[in-house]
Amino acid sequence: MKLPEKLAMKQIERRLKNLRGFAKEADIRTGWIGYIRRAMCMTLGTLAGAAKLSQATVQQIEKRETAGKVTLATMRRIAAAMDCEFVCAIVPKRGLNDFLKEKAAIKAARIVREADVHMTLEDQRVSENIKDRIERIAGELLAKGDIW
Fold this sequence. Notes:
By secondary structure, the chain is mostly helical. It has 2 domains: 6-81, 434 Repressor (Amino-terminal Domain), CATH 1.10.260; 96-144. It contains 7 helices and no strands. The chain has helices at 6-25, 32-39, 44-51, 55-66, 72-81, 96-121, 130-144. Helix 3 (44-51) packs across helix 4 (55-66) and helix 6 (96-121) packs across helix 7 (130-144). The protein is elongated, with a radius of gyration of 25 Å. The model has no long low-confidence stretch (mean pLDDT 90).
Protein backbone atom coordinates (compact mmCIF):
# COMPACT_ATOMS: atom_id res chain seq x y z
CA MET A 1 0.00 0.00 0.00
CA LYS A 2 1.41 3.36 -1.02
CA LEU A 3 2.06 6.01 1.63
CA PRO A 4 -0.06 9.17 1.62
CA GLU A 5 1.38 12.21 -0.20
CA LYS A 6 3.54 14.63 1.83
CA LEU A 7 0.75 17.17 2.38
CA ALA A 8 -1.69 14.47 3.47
CA MET A 9 0.96 12.99 5.77
CA LYS A 10 1.52 16.42 7.39
CA GLN A 11 -2.23 16.75 7.98
CA ILE A 12 -2.40 13.26 9.47
CA GLU A 13 0.59 14.01 11.72
CA ARG A 14 -1.00 17.28 12.88
CA ARG A 15 -4.27 15.56 13.75
CA LEU A 16 -2.49 12.73 15.53
CA LYS A 17 -0.31 15.14 17.49
CA ASN A 18 -3.43 16.86 18.81
CA LEU A 19 -5.08 13.54 19.63
CA ARG A 20 -1.94 12.12 21.26
CA GLY A 21 -2.11 14.77 23.98
CA PHE A 22 -5.78 14.02 24.48
CA ALA A 23 -5.20 10.26 24.59
CA LYS A 24 -2.89 10.61 27.58
CA GLU A 25 -5.72 12.23 29.54
CA ALA A 26 -8.55 10.14 28.09
CA ASP A 27 -8.41 7.15 30.41
CA ILE A 28 -11.12 7.88 32.95
CA ARG A 29 -11.34 5.14 35.58
CA THR A 30 -15.06 5.67 36.12
CA GLY A 31 -15.79 5.73 32.37
CA TRP A 32 -16.72 8.74 30.31
CA ILE A 33 -20.48 8.31 30.62
CA GLY A 34 -20.50 8.52 34.41
CA TYR A 35 -17.74 11.15 34.45
CA ILE A 36 -19.56 13.54 32.12
CA ARG A 37 -23.00 12.69 33.53
CA ARG A 38 -21.86 13.76 36.99
CA ALA A 39 -20.07 16.83 35.60
CA MET A 40 -23.38 17.83 33.97
CA CYS A 41 -25.23 17.27 37.28
CA MET A 42 -27.31 14.52 35.65
CA THR A 43 -28.73 11.68 37.68
CA LEU A 44 -29.00 8.18 36.27
CA GLY A 45 -32.74 8.79 36.02
CA THR A 46 -32.31 12.02 34.07
CA LEU A 47 -29.96 10.35 31.58
CA ALA A 48 -32.25 7.33 31.34
CA GLY A 49 -35.18 9.60 30.47
CA ALA A 50 -33.18 11.50 27.86
CA ALA A 51 -31.96 8.23 26.28
CA LYS A 52 -35.42 6.62 26.56
CA LEU A 53 -33.94 3.74 28.56
CA SER A 54 -34.53 2.43 32.05
CA GLN A 55 -32.35 3.65 34.89
CA ALA A 56 -31.08 0.07 35.40
CA THR A 57 -30.08 -0.11 31.72
CA VAL A 58 -28.10 3.13 31.95
CA GLN A 59 -26.40 1.84 35.09
CA GLN A 60 -25.48 -1.37 33.24
CA ILE A 61 -24.17 0.67 30.29
CA GLU A 62 -21.90 2.62 32.65
CA LYS A 63 -20.59 -0.65 34.11
CA ARG A 64 -20.04 -2.15 30.65
CA GLU A 65 -18.15 0.96 29.56
CA THR A 66 -15.68 0.72 32.45
CA ALA A 67 -15.20 -2.98 31.61
CA GLY A 68 -14.57 -2.11 27.95
CA LYS A 69 -17.65 -4.01 26.80
CA VAL A 70 -19.95 -1.27 25.55
CA THR A 71 -20.66 -0.93 21.83
CA LEU A 72 -19.87 2.16 19.79
CA ALA A 73 -23.55 2.46 18.90
CA THR A 74 -24.45 2.57 22.60
CA MET A 75 -21.79 5.22 23.26
CA ARG A 76 -23.19 7.32 20.39
CA ARG A 77 -26.74 6.94 21.72
CA ILE A 78 -25.78 7.97 25.25
CA ALA A 79 -23.65 10.86 23.99
CA ALA A 80 -26.57 12.13 21.90
CA ALA A 81 -28.89 11.87 24.91
CA MET A 82 -26.39 14.02 26.85
CA ASP A 83 -26.15 16.50 23.95
CA CYS A 84 -22.48 15.54 23.54
CA GLU A 85 -20.19 14.34 20.78
CA PHE A 86 -18.85 10.80 20.89
CA VAL A 87 -15.22 10.61 19.75
CA CYS A 88 -13.41 7.37 18.96
CA ALA A 89 -9.88 7.30 17.56
CA ILE A 90 -6.87 5.06 17.13
CA VAL A 91 -3.77 7.08 17.94
CA PRO A 92 -0.22 5.80 17.43
CA LYS A 93 1.88 6.13 20.58
CA ARG A 94 4.56 8.12 18.74
CA GLY A 95 4.95 10.13 15.54
CA LEU A 96 3.69 8.32 12.46
CA ASN A 97 6.78 9.17 10.37
CA ASP A 98 9.12 7.78 13.03
CA PHE A 99 6.96 4.69 13.34
CA LEU A 100 6.97 4.07 9.58
CA LYS A 101 10.73 4.60 9.32
CA GLU A 102 11.33 2.17 12.18
CA LYS A 103 9.11 -0.50 10.60
CA ALA A 104 10.85 -0.05 7.24
CA ALA A 105 14.28 -0.36 8.90
CA ILE A 106 13.25 -3.55 10.72
CA LYS A 107 12.03 -5.12 7.49
CA ALA A 108 15.11 -3.93 5.59
CA ALA A 109 17.42 -5.41 8.24
CA ARG A 110 15.61 -8.74 7.95
CA ILE A 111 15.95 -8.68 4.15
CA VAL A 112 19.65 -7.81 4.35
CA ARG A 113 20.33 -10.55 6.93
CA GLU A 114 18.55 -13.16 4.80
CA ALA A 115 20.41 -12.03 1.68
CA ASP A 116 23.73 -12.10 3.53
CA VAL A 117 23.14 -15.70 4.61
CA HIS A 118 22.56 -16.73 1.00
CA MET A 119 25.50 -14.66 -0.25
CA THR A 120 27.80 -16.25 2.35
CA LEU A 121 26.66 -19.74 1.37
CA GLU A 122 27.46 -18.91 -2.25
CA ASP A 123 30.82 -17.42 -1.24
CA GLN A 124 29.84 -13.97 -2.53
CA ARG A 125 30.50 -10.61 -0.92
CA VAL A 126 28.66 -7.30 -1.07
CA SER A 127 30.92 -4.27 -1.07
CA GLU A 128 28.33 -1.89 0.37
CA ASN A 129 28.36 -1.35 4.16
CA ILE A 130 25.55 -3.26 5.92
CA LYS A 131 24.22 -0.09 7.57
CA ASP A 132 24.13 1.71 4.21
CA ARG A 133 22.34 -1.25 2.61
CA ILE A 134 19.73 -1.30 5.37
CA GLU A 135 19.14 2.46 5.03
CA ARG A 136 18.89 2.24 1.23
CA ILE A 137 16.47 -0.70 1.29
CA ALA A 138 14.42 0.90 4.10
CA GLY A 139 14.06 4.01 1.94
CA GLU A 140 12.90 1.92 -1.01
CA LEU A 141 10.43 0.00 1.15
CA LEU A 142 9.11 3.21 2.66
CA ALA A 143 8.66 4.80 -0.78
CA LYS A 144 6.58 1.80 -1.85
CA GLY A 145 4.72 1.63 1.46
CA ASP A 146 5.92 -1.96 1.80
CA ILE A 147 6.91 -1.96 5.47
CA TRP A 148 5.00 -4.91 6.88
